[in-house]
Amino acid sequence: MLVGGMSLTALIEAMFSAPVGRRDAVHNITSALDDFAISPELGPVWHLCYVYENHGSFRVVDMEIATPTGTLSSKDVWLRLPD
Q: By CB atoms within 10 Å of each CB, which of 16, 43, 52, 60 scores lowest?
């Protein structure tokens, strides 16, 4: 699956359904992003944004990537293993 590529949404859903705490899942996803080739090309400046369940909540339900040219939702970000 990772050789052909998968969306960041699919990774998030898989990690959130895994038998680990949500905080650990978010940490693992965040640290793993450096290990993937990301499409579209983000350039040197980007920031991972967390989407929370509701105002005042610390429960992450999604992630977005902010770049100088706009914000990409997790469904628009594709991850694959580097060549």
A: 43
Q: Does residue 48 surpass a pLDDT of 90?
A: yes
For the cut 70, the answer to whether the pLDDT of residue 8 exceeds it is yes
**Looking at the predicted structure, is the pLDDT value of residue 12 above 90?**
yes
Q: How confident is the model at residue 43 (pLDDT cuts 50, 70, 90)?
A: confident
Say if 1 falls within a structural domain: no
Closest CA to 21 of 63, 62, 49, 59: 59
Q: Nearest-CA neighbor of 72 among 45, 48, 56?
A: 48
The tally of domains found in the chain comes to: 1
The CA distance from 21 to 24, in Å, is 5
User: What distance, in Å, lies between the first and last C-alpha atoms of the chain?
Assistant: 14
Asked if 74 contacts 8 with a C-beta cutoff of 8 angstroms, the reply is yes
